[in-house]
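Saturday, quiet lab. Running sequence design on the structure tokens for the scaffold JK sent over.
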């Protein structure tokens, strides 16, 4: 194809009219409406036309042209960054490699999508800026990133806490099929905003070796730390592994967050080693710095798996209200579930609503007495053993995703055909097979 943008627009418009489903449609449910189509490539030029045959070079230039409903296709190859888009004002300043501050509209996001079948790699490791760095700083709303690899955001001095792979403060954005790794800080960090969807994305091997708070203490795979009145942030189908701090972290989140169908393993270590680093929880579901706050909110973690994390698989982290933990599987964590909460008087109490969860291996439970728990593997009288599962292998979980971007179908920690965990759960409003929900993250067919 060598169409000018308007020709492609016309083509898409006609296709939409004739056969709406024939046009690319994402898992996030946003169909590819008629809009401008532009191209960016590593060997492009910002003075070119932005067409497929004459692509631009930078996302920044594409953003200056693209508007609501438009699609910017990022061709495969490596986009290498050596400096931010402004100078550091001080050694503790924050700068961006890529700033996305132009918003789409509801139903008509601005899309920055990998060209089908190709992998655009944003390599920030050559950056030399002497302050904190955000690889992508998404301050706008209704922006849709899909299929990008984001890696190597550095810390170039030891005066700060973490840098960040992708930082988000806007709302109603979608991040799909993102692979963010080897950053000196969290892979994807929602600082504020509501209604953001992080879908079928991976974050791994992030490690903030030069943080002033201690090496490795801040690099979570994914996090949301939003202010009040920003509900609707969701992590779905995501994997987080070998990050030096936590897999998923919701500390200081003052609006409810949902994490579902997601996996976390081997967090809390220097990546690819068994050397301990940061906190090491698979799912850290809240907390407000250890003390009580009166405006804490309930988060939901469900249908998710944690294993081999250095600390807890699922952790309440001194949360102030009982979170919902439904149909999770926790294996060989320390402990598998820790429901440490805090009362209005500041006392340590057990807080959590737990149903249909599995704990196996590791040290099982902490701060469970007094939590609202029922129909979990530890209070249904079942005998836990390896034979409850098809496999308890802890390798291979980073296998390639299915063609539609969803998590790979693996036998690991799925219930054996004769498992006594089948149909031992209670209806919590999630789909199930047979007479009742099963225990754990994977419902037997
Ligand atoms: Ca930490
Ligand atoms: Ca953390
Ligand atoms: Ca069932």
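Result came back. Writing it out in full:
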């Amino acid at each position: 194809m060598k169409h000018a943008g308007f020709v492609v627009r016309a083509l898409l418009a006609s296709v939409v009219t004739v056969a709406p489903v024939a046009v690319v449609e994402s898992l996030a449910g946003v169909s590819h409406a008629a809009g401008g189509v532009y191209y960016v490539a590593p060997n492009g030029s910002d003075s070119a036309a932005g067409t497929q045959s004459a692509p631009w070079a930078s996302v920044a230039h594409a953003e200056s042209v693209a508007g609501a409903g438009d699609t910017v296709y990022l061709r495969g190859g490596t986009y290498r960054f050596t400096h931010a888009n402004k100078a550091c004002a001080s050694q503790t300043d924050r700068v961006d490699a890529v700033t996305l501050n132009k918003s789409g509209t509801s139903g008509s996001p601005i899309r920055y999508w990998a060209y089908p079948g190709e992998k655009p790699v944003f390599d920030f490791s050559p950056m030399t800026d002497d302050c904190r760095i955000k690889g992508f700083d998404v301050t706008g709303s209704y922006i849709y990133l899909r299929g990008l690899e984001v890696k190597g955001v550095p810390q170039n001095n030891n005066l700060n806490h973490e840098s960040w792979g992708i930082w988000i403060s806007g709302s109603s954005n979608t991040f799909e099929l993102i692979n963010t790794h080897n950053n000196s800080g969290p892979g994807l960090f929602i600082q504020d905003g509501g209604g953001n969807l992080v879908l079928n994305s991976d974050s791994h091997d992030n490690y903030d070796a030069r943080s002033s708070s201690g090496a490795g203490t801040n690099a979570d795979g994914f996090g949301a730390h939003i202010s009040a009145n920003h509900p609707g942030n969701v992590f779905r189908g995501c994997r987080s592994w070998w990050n030096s701090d936590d897999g998923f972290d919701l500390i200081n989140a003052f609006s409810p967050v949902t994490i579902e169908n997601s996996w976390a393993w081997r967090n809390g270590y220097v990546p690819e080693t068994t050397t301990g680093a940061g906190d090491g929880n698979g799912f850290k579901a809240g907390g407000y710095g250890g003390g009580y706050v009166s405006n804490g909110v309930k988060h939901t973690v469900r249908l998710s798996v944690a294993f081999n994390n250095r600390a807890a698989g699922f952790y309440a982290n001194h949360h102030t209200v009982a979170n919902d933990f439904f149909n999770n599987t926790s294996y060989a964590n320390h402990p598998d579930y820790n429901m440490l909460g805090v009362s209005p008087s500041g006392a340590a109490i057990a807080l959590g609503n737990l149903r249909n969860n599995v704990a196996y291996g590791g040290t099982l439970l902490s701060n469970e007495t007094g939590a609202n728990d029922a129909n979990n593997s530890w209070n249904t009288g079942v005998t836990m053993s390896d034979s409850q599962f098809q496999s308890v292998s802890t390798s291979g979980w980073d296998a390639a995703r299915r063609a539609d971007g969803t998590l790979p179908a693996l036998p690991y920690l799925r219930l054996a055909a004769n498992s006594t965990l089948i149909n031992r759960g209670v209806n919590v409003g999630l789909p199930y097979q047979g007479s009742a929900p099963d225990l754990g993250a994977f419902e037997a067919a």
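Notes for JK: The longest helix spans residues 5-18. Helices lie at 5-18, 59-65. Ask whether to fix the surface positions before the next round.
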